[in-house]
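Limitations
The C-alpha cells in this dataset are predictions for the assembled complex, not deposited experimental models. Users should treat interface geometry with appropriate caution, especially where small molecules or nucleic acid strands are included. An illustrative entry is reproduced here so readers can see what is and is not provided.
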Amino acid sequence: MRSFVLWSLFVLTTLYPLGCYGADALKLRYLATILGDIKETGLKKPEGVACDDQGLIVIADTENGRLVRYVLQDNTLKGGTEIKVQEVVFPVRVQLNSKGNIFVLDGQLRKVAQLTPEGAFAGYLTPQGVNPPLVVPKSFKLDGRDNVYLLDIGGERVLQLDPSGKLLSQIPFPKNYGAISDLALTSGGDVLILDSAKSTVYIAKKENPQFTPFTKGLQDYLNFATNMLTTTRSADIYLMDQDGGAIVILGPDGLFKGRQLAMGWRNGQLYYPQQMCINKNGDVVIADRGNSRVQIFENLK
Amino acid sequence: MKIHLKTFILLGVLAMLSLGLNSYAQDNTAKFKLKPGAYGKLCLDCHPGFQDKLKKQHVHTPVKNGNCSGCHNPHTSAFSKLLESDASKICASCHKTLVVANPLSVHKPVADGACMKCHDPHSSVNKNNLLKTGNELCLECHKSLADTLAKIKVKHNPVEKGCLNCHDPHASAKDDSLLKERVTALCIGCHKTDRPSFIKQHMNYPVATSRCTSCHDPHGSDRKGILYNNVHKPVSTRMCNQCHEEATSGTPLKIKREGAELCRGCHSDMFNATFGKKRMHSPLLSKKGCLTCHNPHAAKEKGLLKESPLVLCGSCHADTIKRQAKSVTKHEPVKNGNCVACHDPHASDSALLAKQASVVDLCASCHDWMKHSTHPIGDKFVDPRNKNATLNCLSCHRSHGTEYKGMMPFPAISDLCTQCHEQFRR
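Predicted assembly:
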C-alpha cells in the first residue's frame, strides 16, 4: 500500500508538469532586435518576415521598398544585406520555398514576385487557367511541394497553384464572411483562412474542400488578428493579434490555448505587429511594424 | 340526429372545459390548502388595490380567474415579487408560441424576456394589456425614429396609422426588422406594380421583385417618393441606364460592369487617387468593392454610406469601437463616429490608413496647443526605447482610448514617464 501511494505520488509529480507543457506550447523569451541592415539603415514599418531551417531570415522592409536578409546561427545574427529590385516596390509578405527562392507579395502592385536565393528578380507569379481571371492577392503560403496557395480577395477564393502558376484547384470563401486577411496550411493538407472582422478561422478539409467555421467565440481572446501561421513541428495555429500586440495560440482543434507577448514599445513588446515565422529551433521572428523593427524570441518550451 | 350530435359535442367540450378550470382551481386550493371559498379572494384581502385593476377593460386571464398563484407563490420565492420563476421566463411558460420557429428577427424585449416593457401583467385599459396604445408605445423606445418622424416632410401613410401595419411586435420568420413579410412582398401589398404610373416612375424597369428599401425610406423622408435623403445622381436624374442595361433589354437590371469597375466610370478621379496609394482598404479590393460600404441608389447617410460610420466601421473593427466605449477619456472623433477625421476610408500611403504620414501633424489638425507648448515630439526626437522610432503623440497615448485617464496606456503617469526617464523609476 505504502509503495502504491509513493508510486502514485511520483507519477503525479512527474507527469503533471509534462501535461502543463503540452497545454502551453509556446513560451517566449526576448532574444534580439533587428533595427536595420548592415549599413545601419533603419527598418521602416516592416510588415513581412520569413525564416527557413538554415537560419535564414528575410525581412520585408515595407516602407523602404526592399528586403533585408539575415542569418541566425547559435543565437547570433549575421549578414544584414539589402535586396532591392525595381520590380518590388512595397513588399508586405514574404515566403521561402524549399530551394531558397524568395516569394514576395507587393502590396501596391498586388503581385507575387519570385526572387532567386541571391535576390535577383525571376518574374511574377502569374496564375494560369483561373476563371474569373481577375486575381487580387491579399496573402499567400507555400506547401512542402512548393505549390502556392493564393488568398484572392477579388475572386473571394483560395487558389492552389503549382510552382509555375498553373491552377490546381480553387476553394471559394464561405458565405457571409467578414474580411479574410490570411491563410495557412495544416500538416494534414487542410486549408485555413482567417476572418479578421468576425474573429473566426474557417477550415477546408483536404477530403472536402469547402470552408466551414473552425473556431468559435475567438473575439473573447483577441482584438483584430491579421496574420496566421502553422508549422510542420506543431499542430498548433498561431494568430497575430495586430491591435492587441500579441500572439494567440489555438490548438489543433481550434480551441484557444494561450496568449503570448503584449503591446508596447520596449524590447520584447509589440506595436501593431504583422507577419511572423518560426525556425527549426522554435525561435519566433516577428515583423513589429509599429515599432519599425523585427524582434526575435526564443521558445522556452 | 345531426343536431343531437352537435349538441352532444358542444356539451362535451363545455363539460371538459369546466372540469379543467375546476380541477385547476381545485389543484391550487389543494396545493395551498385554501379555506373553502378563499380561492380568488384571499389575496385581495391584503391587496385591495387590485379591485381597481380588476375593473379595467382588459384583465390578464389568470388575474381575472383569481389565480394569483399562477404566477406568484404566496409563501416564498427565490425571485422578486414572489414570482414562481424568473421574471424574464415566467410569461413564456404560458405564451409559448409568441416567437415563431426559426425567426429572422426577434424584438429585443421579447428576446430579453422583458414583456413588461410593453404589457401590464395584471390589467390595462388597452387591448392585449399594452401599457400605451399605437405608435406611442413603440416610439417611447425608438426615440431617434420618433425625432425623425416629427421632422420629415414626406410621410408614409402606414407609419402614421401604426407600426404594426408592417412590423410584428414579437418576432418575424419572414425578414429582419420584425417585418411581417419580405420587404418587396410587404410593399406590393399596397403599391400595385402593374399600374402605369408605377411603371413610369421606375423608368420602365421591372422593379417588382427588387428590394424597395434600397431607394425608399419606409418611414418617410424629405424627398418626393420617400426616397432616402441622399440619392445617387444617376437615380435622381433618372439615368438608370448609366449603370444598368436598357429597360428594354433582356436583362434590364444587369449592371454594365462588375464591381468597382462600374463606379470607376464616373468616379475616375477618386479611383486614380486611391489606386495610386501604397495601402488600400481591403474591402475596396474585394468582389463587392465599393458596395461593401456604399449603397448604389440612395441612403440615409451622407456619401451613400450603408450605415452611420460608427456602425459601418464597427462592423469589422468591433474591437476598436469596444475599446473606445470602455475608455475613461473619450476621443471626440471616435466617440462621434468620425473615423474619417484620422483615417482615409479608401487608401493611404501610411500604415493604418492614417490621413497624414506624420502622427504629430495629424493630431495637430485638431490639437493646436501642441504647436506652442508640449513635451519634445517630432522627427528630431528619437524615442529612448527604440532608436528606429521618434517621439510622437502615440508614444504616450492610444488614439482609441484606454482604461486610464487621458488615453494613456498606464494607470499612473509615473509609470508612463519612467518608460523613458528610467532614472526616476522607484
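Some entries come with short summary sentences. For this one: The two ends of chain A are 36 Å apart (CA to CA).
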